[in-house]
Design a protein that fits this description.
Strand order of the largest sheet: 1-8-9-10-11-12-2-3-4-5-6-7-13
CATH architecture: Clam
Strand content: 35-45%
Helix content: 10-25%
Structural class: mainly beta
Number of domains: 1
Number of helices: 3
CATH class: Mainly Beta
Radius of gyration: 20 Å
Length: about 230
């Protein structure tokens, strides 16, 4: 029963995180609103005007993908992998795995550490079919600053891919984004303040060729079927 209660808590937490992250936007820079006109940006200077793909055009390219990115969190590096295809969706963060099988209409919350988990009816699966539900806040991190003085400052290569580098300065804080030339997503971003820099970057990017069987091998897990206790739930 303790394991069931733990799994129930994990499911509730996952649902809250997915709902929050799917709607999150990058935080506004200190000292101003990112929608403010570029002329009111006290730190913006130099560089060329931005020429970025629209978010809607970028999303059309990503119906099937696998993306892994590393990010700073409390001074520690963390990693997250997101996969999507027409048949399902998966999010892997540490030992926690969220897996959705659209064909079976099931949501799985799994622990890769002890190979246990639970399955529950999916309900409305549309939320899992949008591009970058979790990673989207990072992949389009530049979007909030597109019309706020963001400038093109150079070019670079990230994980072997050509990228254009954009920057915006607000007082003593500098935001930089390395945007993939082909797909229009952020491959790397950084925030520099008080002489310290925090970075987030994609370490793996595969577009196309992802199958449901590539996401999770459910035969490795002992899975508790939530429908067996549904009659006891309110």
């Amino acid at each position: 029963m303790k394991r069931i209660l733990c799994l129930l808590c994990a499911l509730a937490l996952a649902a809250c995180l997915l709902a929050a992250c799917g709607k999150s936007d990058p935080p506004p820079p200190p000292g101003g609103d990112p929608t403010t006109a570029a002329g009111n940006n006290p730190g913006g200077d130099g560089g060329d005007a931005v020429d970025l793909q629209s978010k809607s055009d970028v999303e059309l390219k990503f119906s099937n993908y696998r993306i892994t990115f590393d990010f700073d969190s409390g001074g520690e590096k963390n990693s997250m992998t997101e996969m999507r295809c027409d048949e399902g969706y998966a999010l892997i963060s540490g030992d926690s795995v969220t897996f959705v099988d659209f064909g079976k209409n099931l949501l799985y919350i799994l622990s890769a550490a002890d190979k246990t988990g639970m399955a529950t009816p999916l309900g409305d699966g549309d939320a899992y079919k949008s591009f970058g539900m979790i990673a989207g806040g990072f992949l389009f991190g530049y979007d909030a600053y597109r019309d706020a003085g963001l400038k093109k400052v150079g070019s670079d290569t990230v994980i072997g891919r050509k990228a254009t580098v954009y920057s915006i300065k607000w007082f003593s804080v500098e935001y930089k984004f390395w945007v993939d030339n082909e797909y229009g997503i952020t491959l790397k971003s950084s925030i520099t303040a008080d002489g310290e820099t925090q970075t987030s970057e994609i370490t793996e990017l595969k577009v196309g060729g992802i199958k449901l069987s590539d996401m999770v091998n459910l035969s490795e897990y002992e899975i508790f079927d939530m429908s067996s206790i549904s009659s006891f739930l309110p």
